[in-house]
Amino acid sequence: MATHKLLLLPGDGIGPEVMAEVQRVIDWLNAQGIAKFETEQGLVGGSAYDAHKVSISEADMAKATAADAVIFGAVGGPKWDSVPYEVRPEAGLLRLRKDLGLFANLRPAVCYPALAEASSLKRDVVEGLDIMIVRELTGGVYFGEPKTITDLGNGQKRAVDTQVYDTYEIERIGRVAFDLARKRKNKVTSMEKRNVMKSGVLWNEVMTQVHAREYKDVTLEHQLADSGGMNLVKAPKQFDVIVTDNLFGDMLSDIAAMLTGSLGMLPSASLGEVDSKTRKRRSLFEPVHGSAPDIAGKGLANPIAMISSFGMALRYSFDMGDLADKVDAAIAAVLASGLRTADIKSEGTTPASTSQMGEAILKEL
Amino acid sequence: MATHKLLLLPGDGIGPEVMAEVQRVIDWLNAQGIAKFETEQGLVGGSAYDAHKVSISEADMAKATAADAVIFGAVGGPKWDSVPYEVRPEAGLLRLRKDLGLFANLRPAVCYPALAEASSLKRDVVEGLDIMIVRELTGGVYFGEPKTITDLGNGQKRAVDTQVYDTYEIERIGRVAFDLARKRKNKVTSMEKRNVMKSGVLWNEVMTQVHAREYKDVTLEHQLADSGGMNLVKAPKQFDVIVTDNLFGDMLSDIAAMLTGSLGMLPSASLGEVDSKTRKRRSLFEPVHGSAPDIAGKGLANPIAMISSFGMALRYSFDMGDLADKVDAAIAAVLASGLRTADIKSEGTTPASTSQMGEAILKEL
Ligand SMILES: CC(C)[C@H](C(=O)O)[C@@H](O)C(=O)O
Ligand SMILES: CC(C)[C@H](C(=O)O)[C@@H](O)C(=O)O
After folding, report:
1. Are residues A123 and A59 part of one domain?
2. At what residues does the UniProt record annotate the site feature described as Important for catalysis (chains A, B) (predicted)?
3. In this structure, are residues B49 and B87 in contact, taking their beta carbons and an 8 Å threshold?
C-alpha cells in the first residue's frame, strides 16, 4: 500500500480543535490498515507569527512542498489585527496557494436536507441545492502588481491594486470547470463583469473559445457577476458549476455557502496542475468557514467542514473515491440521527460538542 | 417658484415605458402648479448607438451638464452585445457618472411589508428591512488606468484592470455615509478586503480617521466584504448604512436589492459634490433594475422604481422632502390596495400594467 504524506496546518482559532477530529480519522484509517498516511504538523497564520514572526516559516513551506496534500484549518483573529501587512495571518494562506500553484479552488455548496431549515432562505428555494463553485485562486487582484500605497504628500495617499489575467490562466480554470460539469449536470455558468472590466472581456472570450474547442457537449452560460449574485439569492438551483475569478469567487462562494445554512459543513479543495510525468498534483484542503475566534477552545466548533475537506483530499488527491463516499455517508448518517453542534442546532435535535461529533462520525465509519 | 431643469434619458428596453410614467407625474405637478419642471429628452445606451454610433452624444452630455438633475431609465440588451467595447450601452452610463462627478451612489434596500412574501428569504429575516447602501461611484476598478488587453503573441493575451483610490475619494464618500446615518439609525458598516487589497487597507484607515475626527457620535463597524455579503444574506437587519467601493458596491447592492423581493421597486440616487458657491450638486436618478429586454414593450414593467427614483430627485436635488414623502406614501398606498405588476404578483392581488400602475400612483397623489 502506498504511503501518503500529509502536512496538517491547524492554524488559529477553532482550527486546532477541528483538525484534532481529522487526526482521529487518520489514526483510525492507519490502525485499520485501510490506508497509510504519514502526517507532519506545521504552523500557519497568527500561531506562526507568535512563534516565528512570520505567517508561515520556510521550514513549513518546504514541508508543504514535499507533502502529497496539505490539510489546512483556519487563520486569523483580532489578536493579530495590527501586525504588519506582510506577516498578517492571511499572508500564510495566500503564499501557500501561490507558491504551490493551487489555481483551482473547488467549493461545493450543498444543502443537507436535515439542515434546510437552518438557511435564512425559504426551504423550497434551497432544499436539494448542489452547486460547485470553481474559483480561480492564484491570479487576479489577489496577486497582480503593482499593489501599493503611496504617500502623495498633503495628507493624501494613493492605494493601487491590479487585476491581471492571462489567456492560459483562464483556459486552465475553464477546463477544471467543464471537466467537473461532465460528472455533474453538465452545465457551466461563467461570471465576470465584461461590461466594466477588461479582464471580464478576456475571461468571457477565453471561456467561449475553450468551450467551442473542447467542451461542446457541456452547456455554457455567461452571467454578469452582479446579476449572477442576485440569481444566487433568488433561484440558486438554476446553477450547476459556476466558474469565476479570484475576487468574485471569494464573494460568490461565501454567499452560496450561506444560502445552504450549513457554513460549518462546507469543505473546499485547492488544486494545482497535474504533473505530466508523475500524474500527481499539489493540493490543499480547507473548510470554507473561518477561524471563529469568538468560540475557539470551547468545544463548540463544528468539525464537519474539516472532516469533509479531508474527504475531498481522499477523492481528489489519493483517488480513494469509495472511501470519500463513506466519509460523506457517515456525516449524513450522523446528521440524520439528530446530532448537532451549536451552529446547526434546532428543536428536537441532540446537542454535541466538537469531539462528540467527531467521535460519532468515526463510529459510523 | 424656481424652474428646475430635468434631462430625461429613458435608454433601452423597458426604460422608455417606465420613464413615460415619470413624465406623467411631472406633467401633473406642473399642471397643478405644485412645481415647475422644464424637461428635455436625450438618448443613451443602445438607442444612442443606433442613432449616432456612440453610447451618448456630445450634445446630450452638454444637456446633462446643464440640467439640475438627470433622470435615467436603463441601458443595454442582447441587440448590442457585439458592438465595440468603447461604445457599448453601459459606456454611456459610466461616462455620465464620471464626467458629472457623481461619486456618491445611494441605494436604499427597503422591504415593503406588502411584498415580504416575494423574497426568497424567510419573512422574519427581511420584514421591515431598511438598509442604505452608499457606493463609491467614480473611482476604483471602474475607472483606474491601465485598463487594457495586450496581445502577448503565442495565442496569449493579458488583461489588466486597475483599482485606484486616493484618500480624498474615501473621505468624501465616508462623509456622505456618516451624514446619512445621523438621519437614520446612526450606524455605518464599512466593507472592504483589507486582508488582500491595499485599497482595502487605505479604505479602512481613512474611514476610521474620518469617523474619529468628525463623526464620533455615529457607530462605525468594519466588515470584510466577503463576510459582509454573507451577513447580508444571513441577518440583513443588523445593518443601517453600508459604505463600500465601486465594485463591492455593485455586487452588494444588487444582493441587498434581491433580498427585499422588490427589485422592480428600488430607486437610486447618484450625487456629486456640493458646489461651495451655488450650494447645488450634480445628480442622476435611476432605478436599480436593468433594461429587462425580455419584457420590453409589453406593458409588463414595474414603473415604481423609476417613479421612486424621481422621488429621490425631489428629496436630494430640489429640497422637496415633503413632496417626496407624498410620492412614497402614494406608492405604499397603491401597493396596500393590492395592485401589482407581473413581477410582484401573488395570490389575491389585482394585476396591473405599467401604465395602470403609474395611473394609480398619480391618482393617489
Ligand atoms: C482569508 C482570506 C485571505 C481568504 C480569501 O480572501 O481568499 C478567504 O476569505 C477565503 O475565501 O479563502
Ligand atoms: C450597467 C453597469 C455598468 C452598472 C455597474 O456595473 O455599475 C450596473 O450594474 C449598476 O449597478 O449600476
Report:
1. no
2. 142, 193
3. yes
Q: Which of A144, A161, A201 sits opposite B149 (nearest CB)?
A: A201
Backbone angles phi, psi at B183, to 5 degrees: -90, 0
What are the tens digits of pLDDT across the range B235-278? 999 999 999 999 999 999 999 999 998 888 999 999 999 999 98
Domain that holds residue B15: 1-103+272-365
A216's CB contacts (< 8 A; 6+ apart) are none
Q: Are residues A91 and A169 in the same domain?
A: no
Considering only the beta carbons, identify the residue of A121, A202, A230 that sits closest to B157. A202
Q: Give the cell for residue B111.
A: 422591504
CB interface of B with A, residues 265-324, below 8 Å:
290
CB contact (8 A) between residue A155 and residue B167: yes
- Summarize pLDDT for A317-331 with one digit per residue, the tens: 999 999 999 999 999
Q: What is the pLDDT of residues B32-76, one digit of tens each?
A: 999 999 999 999 999 999 999 999 999 999 999 999 999 999 999
Phi, psi dihedral angles at B229 (to 5 degrees): -60, -40
Take atom 5 of ligand 1 and give the residue whose Cα is closest: A250
Residue B193 catalytic?
Answer: yes
* Contact present, A328 and A361 (Cβ < 8 Å): no
Considering the domain architecture, whether residues B210 and B284 belong to the same structural domain is answered as: no
CA–CA distances in Å: residue B164 to residues A260, B146, B200, B227, B254: 35, 10, 10, 23, 23
Q: How many helices (H) and strands (E) does chain A have?
A: 12, 14
Of B6, B3, B2, which Cα lies nearest the Cα of B310? B6
- Return the C-alpha cell found at A313: 483530499
Q: Chain B residue closest to A163 (CA)?
A: B161
N-term to C-term CA, chain A: 20
Could you tell me the pTM of the whole model? 0.96
Q: What is the CA radius of gyration of chain B?
A: 20
Q: Say if residue B99 is in the same domain as residue B142.
A: no
Tell whether ligand 1 has an atom less than 6 A from the beta carbon of residue A290. Answer: no
A323: alpha, beta or left? (left if phi > 0; alpha if psi -120 to 50) = alpha
Are the C-beta atoms of B203 and B191 separated by less than 8 Å? no
Give me the CATH number covering residue B97.
3.40.718.10
Query: Is residue B93 in contact with ligand 2, taking CB distance under 6 Å?
Result: yes
Asked if omega into A146 is within 30° of 0 (cis), the reply is: yes
Residue B293 known to bind ligand: yes
How far apart, in whole angstroms, are the C-alpha atoms of residue B106 and residue B308?
A: 13
Task: Indicate if ligand 1 lies below 6 Å from the C-beta of A250.
Answer: yes
- Residues of chain B in contact with residue A167, where contact means CB-CB under 8 angstroms, are 152, 155-158
CA distance A172 to A175: 5
Ligand nearest to the Cα of A249, by number:
1
B196 touches chain A (CB under 8 A): yes
Q: What integer pLDDT is reported at residue B240 of this predicted model?
A: 98
Residue B230 Cβ inside 6 Å of ligand 1? The answer reads no
Number of domains making up chain A: 2
